[in-house]
Amino acid sequence: ANQQGILDRELYLLKMHGKYGVRWVEATGDGSYQIEGETNNLLFLPNCVLTREEFVVAIEVVGQVELVFGPPAG
After folding, report:
1. Cα–Cα distance for residue pair 29/7, rounded to 1 Å
2. What is the per-residue pLDDT for 3?
3. Residues forming a β-bridge with 49
4. What distance in Å separates the CA atoms of residue 7 and residue 31, rounded to the nearest whole number?
């Protein structure tokens, strides 16, 4: 897993057990990671706090998600 650079609460594409999901990830003061989704998806990765070791073993950070807002198409 590549958790370098995760400090502030940002959206990331995560891979776990061959499945992908977008989650908010934030490093906590004790070195663990708080992970939250817009909905608490129990099938992929429920809202949770993982230690650094748990995070490194279980999750691959594919990349950060950029939100782009603009005028409607058309």
Report:
1. 10
2. 58
3. 34
4. 10
**Residue 17, strand partner residues:** none
Dihedral angle over CA of 48, 12, 51, 60, nearest 10: 120
Structure tokens at 28: 């906590």
Residues β-bridged to residue 10: 25
Phi and psi, residue 56, nearest 5°: -60, -40
Q: For 42, phi and psi rounded to 5 degrees?
A: -75, -20
3-class secondary structure, 18: coil
Indicate the pairing of strand 33-36 with strand 48-50. antiparallel
By percentage, how much of the chain surpasses pLDDT 70?
A: 88
24-57 pLDDT tens trace: 999 998 999 999 987 776 677 789 999 999 999 9
